[in-house]
Amino acid sequence: MEAELSRLRRLGLYEELSLNYLFYAEILPAEEMRNVSRGKAPDFSSFNRYLSLAEEHASLNRSTREYQLFAKTLRLCAELLAKSEKALQGIGEVLPLAEHATPFFQAFVYGRVTNALHVMGREPGLCKKYCMKCIFALSARPWGHR
After folding, report:
1. d(Cα 95, Cα 109) in Å, to the nearest integer?
2. I need a labelling partner for 91 at 20 to 30 A (CA). Which of 46, 115, 116, 127 fits?
3. Closest C-alpha among 23, 27, 111 to residue 67
């Protein structure tokens, strides 16, 4: 992994570098959830490091807004494990950003917010209905319209 990241950095491929950091950061919370289920305290230091690197490199590419949204959503989901009392505030910050993102990132955010609400014990059935309603609305729009 580190060799590939070094190669991308050396070649100046910041968009690909940012995506790699985001995808690697995406994997790490699952490990921490597994630790929590085993009774261990979560440690998000690696997650935060890679997410910060993703945000730093996102500012150097053409998809900055979407990548920042992706990073903010990942951070929100990780914070649920560490500080669930701040989750609703985080959701309130992420949803307005999704309104101006591409359909892929909107669907990603809606799915993650739904999962966050479910993890918090907020009416799982209503959460799923909300997510599906948002995603169906996305798919009903003509191509190229946000």
Report:
1. 7
2. 46
3. 23
Mean pLDDT by 10 residues, the chain (146 residues): 82 82 81 79 84 79 74 77 71 78 80 74 68 73 55
pTM beyond 0.70, yes or no:
no
Q: What is the reported pLDDT for 126? A: 67
Contact between residue 123 and residue 130 where contact means Cβ atoms under 8 Å apart:
no
User: Where do the structural domains in the chain lie, given as residue ranges?
Assistant: 2-140
Instruction: Report the alpha-carbon angle 44-90-116, nearest 5.
Output: 70
* Contact between 27 and 1 (Cβ < 8 Å): no
Six-digit token pair at 68?
């920042």
Q: What DSSP assignment string belongs to 87-136? A: HHHHHHHHHHHHTTS-HHHHHHHHHHHHHHHHHTTS-HHHHHHHHHHHHH
* DSSP character at residue 28: H
The CA angle 143-60-70, to the nearest 5 degrees, is 50
Q: How many CB atoms lie within 10 A of CB 17?
A: 24
